[in-house]
Amino acid sequence: MKNVRLARLNKRAAYGEFTPSGDGEPTEVWHEVMTLFYGSYKQTLKDVQQLSGEGSGEVKVIIIRHNERVTNSGAFQINGKQYNVKQVLPDDDVNGMDLVTLEYEE
To answer: Which Pfam families match (predicted)?
Structure first.
C-alpha cells in the first residue's frame, strides 16, 4: 500500500490466539501475542455490501504495519471486543502496510 502515513496508525489493539484451556473443558482461553498500532481503513460502499453479505457479524477493515506473525487464524481485541481475522492482505515492501479484515461475532 502506497501513500499511507505512519501517523494514521494511531490506535492500539492486542493480537493473539485462542488456545484450549487445558483443564479438560471444551473452552478456549485468550492468549495475547503482541500489541499493535492500527488505523481505520475507509471502505467503499461496494466493499461494505460484499463483506456484510458473507457473514453474520460486524465487519471492519484495519491497516497495520506489515507483520508476518499476523495470520488468518488469529484474533484482535479492540475496545474490549474480540474480532476474528477473516483475511490478511500483506504488503512485503520495506515500509509495507497490511490490510486486515476482521469479523465480530457475538
So the answer is: Phage_HCP
